[in-house]
């Protein structure tokens, strides 16, 4: 079925339009979303949402290129989902560190921020390599517990335990240095 026939199905509000779109462009959409989102289930969610966005956009729109129009929708949907997941992940990370690193430092207080950064670097230099890699993987590279565990050949529980202990050691270190 060609693009004009598929678009006509959308104008007729025939649900077969989505099936035809998926048959013709499903792999392409999956590749686009998969390059933006690392988890296959997230890419699949973005593609499914994109089909519904296409359904809601046609009519009234009549794209000249169904492929181009759909690819733009998939790309934007995947980017929006990526931003949402990243923001949620960052909020989770900040929550984990909230008890350790003081949030009383204002944006204008550059000397306090430098002091905390310097202390954090000193602390990490004193950690064993494995704990340092786990800590920086989680809080610098924003990796999930699962990704760290798989990459280091550990269980998720072991990674969580090491992170918890490292955060406690960091809190003691910062307290001893008079930062908190």
Write a concise keyword list for the protein shown above.
mainly alpha; Arc Repressor Mutant, subunit A; Rna Polymerase Sigma Factor, Chain: A; 76% helix; 2 domains; 180 residues
Write structural notes for this entry.
- The chain has helices at 3-11, 16-36, 40-57, 66-97, 110-126, 129-139, 145-152, 156-176.
- It is elongated and about 70 Å long.
- The mean pLDDT is 88.
- With 180 residues, it is an all-alpha fold.
- Helix content is 76%, strand content 0%.
- The longest helix has 32 residues, at 66-97.
- The chain folds into two domains: 3-92, Rna Polymerase Sigma Factor, Chain: A (Orthogonal Bundle), CATH 1.10.1740; 98-176, Winged helix-like DNA-binding domain superfamily/Winged helix DNA-binding domain (Arc Repressor Mutant, subunit A, Orthogonal Bundle).
- It is built from eight helices and no strands.
């Amino acid at each position: 079925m060609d693009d004009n026939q598929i678009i006509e199905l959308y104008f007729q509000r025939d649900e077969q339009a989505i099936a035809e779109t998926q048959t013709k462009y499903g792999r392409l959409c999956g590749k686009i979303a998969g390059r933006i989102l690392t988890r296959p289930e997230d890419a699949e969610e973005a593609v499914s949402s994109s089909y519904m966005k296409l359904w809601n956009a046609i009519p009234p729109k009549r794209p000249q290129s169904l492929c181009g129009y759909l690819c733009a929708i998939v790309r934007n949907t995947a980017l929006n989902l990526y931003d949402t997941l990243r923001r949620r992940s960052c909020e989770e990370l900040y929550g984990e560190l909230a008890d350790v690193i003081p949030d009383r430092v204002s944006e204008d207080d550059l000397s306090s921020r430098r002091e905390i950064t310097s202390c954090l670097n000193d602390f990490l230099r004193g950690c064993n390599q494995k704990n340092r890699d786990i800590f920086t993987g989680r809080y610098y590279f924003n990796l999930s517990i699962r990704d760290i565990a798989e990459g280091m050949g550990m269980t998720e529980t072991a990674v969580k335990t090491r992170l918890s202990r490292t955060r406690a050691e960091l809190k003691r270190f910062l307290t001893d240095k008079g930062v908190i």
